[in-house]
Automatic annotation (TrEMBL):
Belongs to the MoeA family. Pathway: Cofactor biosynthesis; molybdopterin biosynthesis. Catalyzes the insertion of molybdate into adenylated molybdopterin with the concomitant release of AMP. One of its GO terms (biological process) is Mo-molybdopterin cofactor biosynthetic process. It comes from Frateuria aurantia (strain ATCC 33424 / DSM 6220 / KCTC 2777 / LMG 1558 / NBRC 3245 / NCIMB 13370) (Acetobacter aurantius). GO terms for molecular function: metal ion binding; molybdopterin molybdotransferase activity. The keyword GTP-binding does not apply. SMART domains: MoCF_biosynth. This is Molybdopterin molybdenumtransferase. CDD domains: MoeA.
């Protein structure tokens, strides 16, 4: 059996970022930057008012006993620079309006009295008050995000604001899903004795859809060596990553490892010291890359959260491939596995004193999924021939 560390070293060695492409900014959600993204404009792009009020020259306030003369012009948002404002004059301005030449300070309208076309201030002002200066926040050409960062809604908005129109990102992997097992009955079909409803196909399709993968195919594989070889070959030819479920253990009908090897894939590991998911198989070669996940649905769910997410992040060029482990406290004692790291499904909540508490759930066996209604985190319990005590600090990740 290989260790978890071996597996992650193997991913680091064999999973390379896919080619890059340029995409329009609105289509880049969830993609990973392949090059730094630079601002195309200053931010603010021009000197403007932060308030609804009056633009004036601070120096004119020294001789403003009779107030300031209000000009007819209005500096509304979206309007050009306007004309020069003479000393002793002021101009009506709104939030986002361009400061007219000759002005440097904004009097917010709450402190201003307008009496017969002259304005009077009821409170003192500071030079530059109420003004957002051009390039105060960002200068054109400044790097706003680095290669390897994920483009989420907030970052896309920040880049859009700085005039960025297209982004260099890594290609998103195309995925071929192969769900194996003669006993597995696809959605909507009646069961005969000995058969089971398909959980893995439903899980995989939903999991990839949730994460914005659009080029995903799903096929069912009979327990037949020739059909297994053919479908894997087709998957390798059409996708960047083939994921199989089932057929990777030591039973007479577990054909995946042999088929993958016959197609020229080099096995990097088979059988990991983890629970669930022990018979996980990973290999690659000129033909492509394959992750063979054991068929038990609990093992598939766990391997997606721990292994598949990592392989995908590497293929997409993320600088910090997940999982990113956090620290929390076990809410209840639990016996660990002496030989294998256990991925424990837990319910996580934060106590009133701010402690992250991780409560182990029942039904942890790898053929069980019923606790997923309450699961919102996975705890990593490294192999130990003891009971992990209540209150012990452990690693965990949130799951959505
Ligand atoms: N002698 C040994 N037997 C087993 C070992 C072992 O080390 N020695 N390992 C066990 C472990 S751990 C696991 S995990 C399983 C994995 O076996 P396979 O990957 O070959 O998976 P299958 O046998 O095809 O299926 C396992 C189980 O899951 C059910 N299944 C499969 N696909 C689906 C699906 N799409 N939807 C719902 N349920 C599915 C299947 O009917 C089996 O019950 O091997 C152990 N055996
Ligand atoms: O490794 Mo298996 O998924 O424990 O039953």
């Amino acid at each position: 059996m290989h260790s978890i560390e071996d597996a992650f070293l193997s991913y680091a060695t064999h999973c390379r970022p896919l080619a890059t492409e340029s995409v329009p900014l609105p289509a880049a959600l969830g993609r990973v930057l392949a090059a730094p993204a630079q601002a195309r404009t200053d931010l603010p792009a021009f000197t403007q008012s932060a308030l609804d009020g009056y633009a004036l020259a601070y120096a004119s306030l020294a001789q403003a006993d009779q107030g300031l003369q209000l000009d007819a012009a209005v500096a509304a948002a979206g309007v050009g620079p306007g004309t020069q404002v003479a000393p002793g004059h002021a101009v009506r301005i709104f939030t986002g309006g361009m400061l007219p030449p000759g002005t440097d300070t904004i009097a917010r309208q709450e402190i201003v009295r307008n009496e017969a076309g002259r304005i009077h201030l009821d409170a003192p002002l500071r030079l530059g008050e109420g003004v957002r200066r051009q390039a105060d926040e960002v200068k054109a050409g400044q790097t706003l995000a680095q290669a390897g960062q994920v483009l989420d809604a907030g970052l896309l908005a920040a880049l859009a604001m700085a005039g960025v129109t297209s982004l260099e990102v890594h290609r998103k992997p195309r995925i071929a899903l192969l769900v194996s097992g003669d006993e597995v009955v696809p959605f909507g079909q009646a069961l005969r004795p000995g058969q089971v409803h398909d959980a893995n196909g439903a899980l995989l399709q939903a999991w990839f859809a949730e994460r914005g993968y659009h080029e995903v195919s799903l096929e069912y594989l009979p327990d037949d060596p020739e059909a297994t070889r053919q479908r894997i070959a087709a998957g390798l030819a059409s996708a960047d990553l083939v994921i199989t479920t089932g057929g990777v253990s030591v039973g007479d009908k577990d054909y995946i490892p042999a088929a993958a090897e016959a197609l020229g894939l080099q096995p990097h590991f088979w059988k990991l010291a983890q629970k669930p998911g022990k018979p996980l198989w990973f290999g690659s070669g000129d033909a492509g890359m394959l992750l063979g996940i054991p068929g038990n649905p609990g093992a598939v769910w766990t391997c997606l959260a721990i292994h598949v997410v990592h392989v995908l992040d590497r293929m997409e060029g993320r600088s910090r491939p997940r999982p990113c482990w956090l620290h929390g406290t076990l809410a209840q004692a639990i016996r660990a596995d002496a030989q294998r790291t256990q991925w424990l499904r837990v319910h996580q909540h934060v106590s009133s004193s701010g402690q992250v508490l991780l409560g182990p759930l029942p039904a942890q066996e790898s053929h069980m999924l019923s606790n997923l209604a309450s699961t919102n985190a996975i705890v990593r319990l490294p192999p130990r021939d003891i009971i992990y005590a209540q209150g012990e600090v452990v690693d965990w990740i949130p799951v959505d």
